[in-house]
Structure formats: structure tokens, C-alpha cells
Amino acid sequence: MKTEPAASQATRVVHAAAGGPDALRAVSPPLYLSTTFERDEHYAFPGGFDYAREANPNRTMLEEALAQLEGGVEAAAFASGMAAAMTLFQALQPGDRVVVAHDTYYGVRAMLNEVFVPWGLRVEYVDASDPHALAAALARPARLIFVETPSNPMLRVTDLAAAARLAHDAGALLACDNTMATPVFQQPLALGADIVVHATTKYLAGNHDAMGGALVTARADAFWDGIRRRQKLCGAIPSPFASWLTLRGISTLVPRMRWHDATALAIAHALAGDARVAEVLHPGLRSHPAHAVAARQSSGTGGVFSIRVAGGRDAALRVASRLRLFRRATSFGGAESLVEHRATVEGAGSPTPPDLLRLAIGLEAADDLIGDLDRALEPRR
């Protein structure tokens, strides 16, 4: 019996983003702006939708696409990546203990410290890139392990398969923020994670014009039911238009990510031998301490990496001020390359080194971006 060949990743992503055909056979999914849906004469909802906070056709199409991309059974879309993370932690109980990678995105750490610790969550930060430190933290009961790999902005790498084994042996769930690598390059659920977290605002939407977040689960279990219930009750959901824009962005995700990744690695190689740069933080470089782990669990890094500028904080800020093709703005994932001095953004008490610049490589030509950085760095001596 002849079997059909497995579709390539690019083909699967394009068709996942297409949604199902509507009654008019439109190739591009229509936009459903209605906040409410009519019952029939039997007081039922023949279309399956009743109220937009509960569900919306555009959001449902997006959730189905996200589940396919990550190899999960279900996904839940939210108004932002922070709303997705918030709902994940809300599904826990006061008194539960959470082990969190110490260099997780600063907004998540601030939310935990300022909102969830006073609420009753017990949080411990560890170096999740060190399996021994993670194992030591799991010697005490924990409900959830939260990691981000590669991390933002230090580009540390957590061994996901090892972290999943440690978490499950301890009776905990493993959640992984996959925003940086995207499902194009990394599949956390296949490596043993239980839940994947996304800021869809970034690469998935891909145009700096649609805010959103998502959770994707490996199992539709009681914990997931709790997340779904909170999504509906609390209403931190994306608008139909944001869902539509994100789905549109997903259709081009694979070629965009391949371009972002190849260009970023070329720039990282160009900067790695430059004396004006004290360090290049990119897991694709063999000099990165976790290069072997990154190569084993992912096929690329994406377009974000960081550099530490020789000369310290003031030198880094001067470089940022002289760049012309890089725009000085927060976020990543769009066509435009961005630069950010993370310590300034994070404010007082930031653990990010003051000489660090985070580079978010867009879709421009690598040589043009290398030239821009060369001109912005201090003159060669």
C-alpha cells in the first residue's frame, strides 16, 4: 500500500494558517467582528459560537493553527504574551511552588514578584541552564518549572529534555517559553515539555502590528481545563483583528524565520572577531557555552542575539545612538531590525550587563546591517 509522503514544515505551516474554507470559499479567512451570535428557533447555536469572550471564529482558527505548529492537542490565545503567562500562573493555587529560570524575560519576573508572590505563589529562581542547579531546586516539592530557551536577552540555553525528566521525576509540569526559537526551530513538547508559552506579538505575527500571546498544551487534562476556564472567565483574549493578523503572519513564518536566522548568524560571525565587541551571545557560535545543547534540541536560534560592547555602558549607548538601519525600539520579530539597551529598559536593579545591546535582526540584507554596525562601533584603532 502506497502512503502519502509527509508534508514539509513550510507546507504544513502555510495550510495550518489558511483556516477552513468559509461558505463563500474565500482563500483568505474572513474577519468576524461580531461580539455575539444568534440562537436559532430551538435556542441553540447552530454555528457553534455564542459570545466573543467565550470564542470567536478568528481566534479559534488561530488556536487550531498554533496547536498544529507546536504539535500540541490544544492552544489558547490571549491578548498578550504576559496575559498568557499570567493565566498559566493563575491556574496554580496559593502556596504552590514554582521554579523559574533566573534570566526569564524581566516582565515575567516582575509579574511574579509583584503580583503572584503577594497572592501566595512561592517562587524560586535558578540557573535553569545548569541541570545540577535545577535538580537541587527540585529536591523540594514544586508544581511547575518555567523556562525560556534561548533566554532573553542573555541567550542562555536550557536542556529541555533533561529539564522535562527532572520535572516529571519530581511530579512537576514543565512550561517553556518558545517565543525566541519559534516552532520552526524548536519543538518543546516533542522534547518533553507539558506547555509551550508564546508572545505571538513577535515572530508569529511578524509585522510589529498585532499584540497577542498563547499557551499550547501536550494534554487536555484537568490543569488545561483550568487554563481554558480562566481564559473565558477573565477575558484576556485577543481581538478578532489581532487574531486575523497573527494568522496571516503565520502563513509566512517558515521563510521569514530562515531568513532571520541565517542573517543573524552571519552578523554574529562578523562581530565575533571584532575587538570592539567584548562578547557575542549567540548559541549558533561554537564559542557559546551551550552550543552543543542548542544544536541538539533546535535547528536554529532565530533573529535575536546580544553583544557586549567593549568600553562599557556609555560605549554601548553611543553605538545604539549611531545606528541608522537598526531602529531603537522594544520587541522583535518584524521586518525591521531593532536595537535595545536592555539595562535601560529594565530599569534599576536590572541583572542585564550595562554594556549589552540586544539586536533583533529583521529582513534586511546581512551586509547592510554589518556595515551599519561597523560604522556605529567605536572607530578602529
Average pLDDT score:
95
Annotation field: number of helices: 14
How many strand segments? 12
Which word captures the global form? globular
Amino- and carboxy-terminal Cα gap:
69 Å
Q: Note poorly predicted spans.
A: none
Largest sheet: 7 strands, mixed
Cα-based radius of gyration, to the nearest Å? 21 Å
Strand content: 5-15%
Question: Oligomeric form of this entry?
Answer: single chain
Protein structure class: alpha/beta
Estimate the helix proportion, in percent. Answer: 25-40%
What letter string, H or E per element, gives the SSE order? Answer: HHEHEHEHEHEHEEHHHEHEHEEHEH
Spatial arrangement of strands, main beta sheet? 1-7-6-5-4-2-3
Provide structural commentary.
With about 375 residues, this protein is α/β, with parallel strands linked by helices. It is built from 14 helices and twelve strands. It has helices at about 10-20, 55-70, 80-90, 105-120, 130-135, 160-170, 180-185, 220-235, 240-250, 255-270, 290-295, 315-320, 340-345, 365-375, and strands spanning about 75-80, 95-100, 120-125, 145-150, 175, 195-200, 215, 275-280, 305-310, 325-330, 340, 355-360. A seven-stranded mixed beta sheet has the order 1-7-6-5-4-2-3, with helices on both faces. It has a five-stranded mixed beta sheet with strand order 8-9-12-11-10. Strand 5 (about 175), helix 7 and strand 6 form a beta-alpha-beta unit. Helix 1 packs antiparallel against helix 9, helix 2 (about 55-70) packs parallel to helix 9 and helix 3 packs parallel to helix 4 (about 105-120). The chain is globular.
What's the SSE blueprint?
Blueprint (H helix, E strand, L loop, with lengths): L8 H10 L38 H14 L3 E5 L2 H10 L6 E5 L4 H14 L2 E5 L4 H7 L6 E5 L11 H10 L3 E5 L4 H4 L9 E4 L14 E5 L4 H13 L5 H11 L2 H20 L4 E5 L9 H7 L6 E6 L3 H10 L4 E2 L9 E3 L1 H5 L9 E5 L5 H11 L5
Helix pairs in contact: 1-2, 1-9, 2-9, 3-4, 10-14
